[in-house]
Amino acid sequence: MIRALVIALPLLMLAGIARADDKPWAAGVDASSQKVALDLYNAANQLFEDGAYPKALELYDEALAKWDHPKIHFNAAVGLKKMDRLVDAYEQLLAAMKYGEAPYTKD
After folding, report:
1. pLDDT at res. 22
2. Residue 20 has what pLDDT?
């Protein structure tokens, strides 16, 4: 299931590049920063799939510096859990849930 989420989230994020009034996590984040963050996120997801969790986490952190997006926090949490960094994973999960269910789909 985690693998499916990691693969599906880039597509969901691409759909999520929108006006701030539609998505509060986009407030104050220009389209260029969103694109850079999405590119970093996609690269991190590939590293994650390859099992390169430390490098993936570096890219998730870079993406978060460009765009504090809940879905990036979620994937960072999964990577941290894989590395048994449970306290850090918990903190990322809290950030991922900042906006409740809004950033996520039922899938």
Report:
1. 81
2. 52
Please identify which residue in the block is written with the tokens 């880039």.
10
> Which class for 106: exposed (0-12), middle (13-18), buried (19 or more C-beta within 10 A)?
exposed
Task: For residues 47-68, give the mean pLDDT.
Answer: 97
The structure's pTM equals 0.78
Residue found by looking up tokens 């499916």 in the block:
4
Instruction: Give 33-39's long-range contacts (Cβ < 8 A, gap of 24+).
Output: 33/66, 33/67, 34/66, 34/67, 36/63, 36/66, 36/67, 37/63, 37/64, 37/66, 37/67, 37/69, 37/72, 38/10, 38/13, 38/14, 38/63, 38/67
